[in-house]
What we know:
Blueprint: E1 22-24, E2 27-29, E3 36-40, E4 47-52, H1 56-71, H2 80-96, H3 98-109, H4 113-136, E5 141-144, E6 148-156, E7 159-163, H5 169-182, E8 186-190, H6 197-209, E9 216-218, H7 223-232, E10 238-242, H8 245-255, E11 261-265, E12 270-274, H9 280-292, E13 302-308, H10 309-325, H11 344-359, E14 363-366, E15 383-386, H12 393-396, E16 403-409, H13 412-419, E17 424-425, E18 427-431, H14 435-444, E19 449-452, E20 467-468, E21 471-472, H15 477-484, E22 485-493
Parallel strand pairs: 7-8, 7-10, 8-9, 10-11, 12-13, 12-18, 13-16, 15-16, 18-19
Antiparallel strand pairs: 1-2, 3-4, 5-6, 6-22, 11-21, 14-15, 17-20
Helix pairs in contact: 1-7, 2-4, 2-6, 3-4, 3-6, 4-5, 9-10
Nicotinamide-adenine-dinucleotide binds next to helix 7 and helix 8.
Amino acid sequence: MSQASPGAVPSAGDVHVGPQLHYIGGEFRPGRGATAFATLNPVTNLAITEVAEGLAADVDDAVGAARRAFDEGPWPRLGARERATVLRRIATAIRDHAADFIGLECLDIGLPIAQMRGLAARAAENFDFFAGSIEELSGQAYRVGDDFLNYTVHKPVGVAALIMPWNAPLMLSTWRIAPCLAAGNTIVLKPAEWSPLTATRLAALLDEVGLPPGVFNVVHGFGETAGASLVAHPGVNLVSFTGESATGSAIMANGASTLKRYSFELGGKSPVVVFADADFDRAVDAVVAQIFTMNGQRCTAGSRLIAQAPIYEDLVQAVAERARNIRVGDPFDEATELGPLIRPEHHERVSGYLDSAVAEGARCLAGGKRPADLSSGNFLEATVFADVTPEMRVFREEIFGPVLVATPFADEAEGIRLANATEYGLAAYVWTNELSRAHRVAQAIDAGLVWVNSQNVRDLRTPFGGMKQSGIGREGGYYSFEFYCELETIHVALGEHPITRLGVHDGEDS
Length: 510
Ligand code: NAD
């Protein structure tokens, strides 16, 4: 655990981390297989600590604990207001220990500390927000003449498997944990194997806050073993998965025989469509921020700049100039704008895309290599490629790094066609000052989330999710409860409606 005092954000040297254990049934414990793996510091690629490796037996223990807590424990039976009170205590505790979470996540995944603060604040907000939402959640009533009153009630579903990626683990997991708990479910969280630290810290915090044993469990481990066992487990009722589209497809196949419900938040290759009449300077700010924050490892990254021909060259040059100025370095340095990629293998994968862009004829305007002054760690310069065509791999595939590709378009129809020329449909950004075109283009783009003249600013009440290969379902506000709750309809007869009478004949009819 981090030993930083609450409030003060530590430097890397202040963050002391012990072995990462599973948290099952209210106890921290090693895996039954007694095997462990290392989580690496992306600045040095040296091991931070050992992480218990969860195998099928650990998953079975965790699902068993969650099942008992759901079937017999108090949590699903509490009133919504009582659960909301606990959620608000969790939010306060996260704020009180924000420095801890910030230090751990900076160390584990290399996000710049200045950006990590906002993500920790959002983690607390997730609990406050869903505490309020569950208190307001109500069913619907349908009066059917004088004969019936029908109404709906929300009930928890059961044991939830939350399988999370490594790019923003604290913010993304709490975005699921909060509504899932609010609804009265119990949880087995499987953090990504590359980013285990804040999940263990969160388990300790929920324990301190007094969540009953078994309501929240954490099993560390790899996707193919711990993750797959969790998905296949008959004791799990619902799976919220965030990660790559290909993994989503494997999970759906694996869980098919036990008929689970899924929410899938998957990959993206989101366009930023900038028309010639847009506010140029604000568009430059947004384009740069939307691809290079969070180290470019962001599902809603605006990774394809699609710019109208008259401003195309000026725009790509302006964006490239800013990219060249981005400070790449130590995530614990307040001045750092771009930290390291998470792992050497991810650095290698992203570097492979840089090579492919050059080989396929894209024009590199900024970056394209490791910074000269950072010879170790997983650092990469903020990179901009111009003249990228839809046939190139870097136009089609999610790179998940600080790499922007730019393509010109002539008119509105071509802008929309290029924006939609992807198998993904998570987010899109449209920049124009022409009102009707803004709406027209936003609606013509097939993406779950479209921002107009804006960077990615979230309202937690609105539905979040992707179209096409970017996901299935929506979470956020009421939509989260559509997934984390069962909806039961109760039909009540108010009077003596006619009932079909069978078996009352006198036996003489033929
Ligand atoms: P990933 O799919 O490799 O892994 C995600 C999680 O799934 C990890 O915990 C992993 O252990 C687990 N997993 C892997 N194989 C599994 C299997 N067969 N069965 C069960 N679990 C398995 O994704 P990643 O590399 O960790 O994350 C990056 C991806 O996540 C990107 O594609 C990014 O766009 C996406 N993402 C999407 C959103 C969104 O909201 N749409 C948000 C963040 C990240």
